[in-house]
Amino acid sequence: SSSTGSTGGSSEGMIVRRGFVNVTQLSYGIGVGKVKGTTDYGYSNPTDFEVDNESNYVRIETVNGAWLADGLLSLGLGVGFQYYYDQDEQFGQLPLFADIRIMPISGDVVPVVVFQPGYSVGVMSNSDLLNGLGISTSKLNGFGIAAGLGLNTYLSKENAFVFSLLYDYQQYGYRVQGYGYYGYNTPYDITERSGTFRISMGLSF
Fold this sequence. Notes:
The chain has no helices and 13 strands. It is mainly beta. Strands 3-5-6-7-8-11-12-13 form an eight-stranded antiparallel β-barrel. Strands 1-2 form a two-stranded antiparallel ribbon. The relative contact order is 0.21.
């Protein structure tokens, strides 16, 4: 856990945090805007597409890091599980990411700027119902970055309730065992880019 207190040279009443910090959160993501992507059958230039973003997700994550700059900055590494779902498909990802939190002031209720660049690893398959046919797909990996604002409400000198609102940009790809150029069951590749509005709540200690 982190340690707190005042040190010489610090502003009067400033909370100084040092050492280890953990942030564990549960999140819900709401798809916004369009899903943009390309379909590559392997025999011509990829075809672009754009559809409404109906993919929401639930996510749990934990971050382990350290306080820097007298507790006004924390740097950490995080891992989570993110489960996407919509009417046609469901799939999971393991996000692996850096967690950067900037707290410009000190106090019992502290605004926080959050950055989370990272890479997600696909961990589940799904069945995409396309034109009434079951098309087997496997979600692959992709980069992403989330950024937003939050509040840390300190319940004690070391423990805080964490709330944040972030915009989460993701890109990922998958291979479809569908009807490709060489006939049925010929694989082809799809890459997608989408944005999600993420609401997160949890604890920091």
